[in-house]
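pls design
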């Protein structure tokens, strides 16, 4: 059994450790030099006793005041969880006990929420819980996959190795998500900027030209009349347009979060969009392969691993397919045969899986599949960005340039008459 394993859980229930608070202190050392800092403790008296043990005579010990702005800190991100996992693994490999490692991480973290989370987990471990049990109290930050891997690592006595693997996994998955977000949101943001600029022109700029055109005493071109009509509508009903746009976006987001049927419909439609759909296919395959490889390598039973992997694919179509694979594997089918039955994975993926199963190196083959499809996603996103840049320039030129031309057409017409 590894020395890094946490202490066995006591037979009788243990009261949860008291929450730690942050105190600011000031004192003098044995040479009379003024020392100050901040430290976590159960209470001020406990901190004074700890400082005296260190040879410091405390003069001031008071709770740290919280800033009005951002007192709670920013939300905890998956990358922060990845860094936390890497730090724990590194210190445990160096012989630092897990409780001590968590104390170091909590005191050095700049995000108060993350610091509080680590301290809570540390307190639970000190009270007798295993790391898996302590993390299970925070399912939002530590998902089912993370907890299952930790449980497998604790059972096998290789917790530090598993945590290091989890850190690498989360870093790769977050990098992949970043690529997908870039492919999805870059065009959307450009369209949003174009609409905002157009609205500003219609509300503030076009009316100025309209006043000038009234003195011409001649008929305006049809295109110019169209733009002026649109401007008059925006000036009169800008609040209605804003409410409709805002309401539509809010309704879309709420429907996606609360309606399972709507979310499933979006996932299916997303896979059918040209170019974007292929990127989403490759992303789901990469996440499936990497997640299954990590869980299988950590020693999680295959059926249980597939159940966890289903939710990590990021798309309901693949989630349903993986659950069907799990059901087939549970009754004795090889993974590659079960993958063929769902008819969604490319031939190369099923063949690589079959080779891995025959050679007893399923995790190694799945890692190779993941690397291949992650690279495919990278290449596709870069190609999409190159393709979109000229199209976006044309789009902006048509929208904004069209308005400018509409405003100057009467001036050109007047110059021709003169």
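designed seq:
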């Amino acid at each position: 059994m590894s020395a890094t394993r946490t202490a066995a859980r006591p037979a009788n229930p243990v009261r949860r450790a008291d929450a730690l608070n942050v105190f600011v202190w000031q004192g003098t050392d044995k040479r009379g030099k003024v020392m100050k800092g901040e430290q976590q403790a159960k209470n001020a008296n406990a901190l004074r006793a700890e400082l005296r043990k260190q040879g410091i005579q405390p003069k001031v010990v008071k709770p740290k005041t919280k800033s009005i702005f951002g007192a709670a800190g920013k939300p905890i991100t998956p990358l922060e969880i990845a860094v936390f996992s890497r730090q724990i693994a590194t210190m445990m490999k160096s012989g630092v006990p897990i409780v001590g490692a968590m104390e170091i991480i909590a005191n050095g973290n700049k995000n108060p929420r993350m610091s509080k989370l680590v301290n809570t987990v540390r307190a639970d471990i000190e009270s007798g819980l295993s790391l898996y049990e302590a993390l299970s109290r925070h399912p939002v930050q530590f998902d089912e996959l993370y907890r299952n891997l930790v449980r497998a690592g604790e059972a096998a006595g290789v917790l530090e190795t598993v945590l290091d693997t989890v850190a690498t996994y989360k870093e790769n998955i977050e990098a992949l998500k970043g690529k997908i977000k870039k492919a999805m949101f870059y065009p959307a943001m450009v369209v949003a900027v174009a609409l905002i600029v157009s609205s500003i022109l219609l509300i503030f700029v076009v009316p100025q030209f309209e006043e000038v055109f009234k003195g011409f005493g001649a008929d305006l071109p049809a295109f110019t009349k169209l733009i002026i009509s649109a401007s008059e509508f925006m000036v009169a009903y800008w609040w209605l347009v804003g409410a409709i746009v805002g309401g539509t976006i809010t309704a879309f987001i709420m429907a996606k979060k609360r309606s399972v049927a709507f979310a499933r419909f979006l996932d299916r439609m997303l896979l059918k969009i040209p170019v974007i759909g292929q990127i989403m296919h490759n992303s789901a395959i990469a996440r499936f392969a990497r997640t299954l490889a990590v869980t299988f390598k950590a020693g999680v039973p295959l059926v249980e691993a597939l159940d966890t992997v289903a939710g990590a694919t990021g798309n309901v179509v693949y989630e349903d397919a993986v659950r069907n694979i799990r059901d087939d594997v549970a009754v004795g089918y090889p993974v590659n045969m079960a993958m063929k039955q769902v008819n969604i994975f490319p031939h190369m993926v099923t063949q690589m899986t079959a080779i891995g199963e025959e050679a007893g190196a399923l995790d190694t083959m799945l890692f190779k599949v993941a690397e291949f499809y992650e690279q495919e996603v990278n290449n596709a996103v870069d190609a999409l960005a190159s393709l979109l840049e000229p199209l976006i320039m044309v789009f902006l030129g048509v929208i904004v340039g069209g308005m400018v031309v509409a405003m100057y057409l009467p001036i050109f017409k007047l110059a021709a008459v003169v």
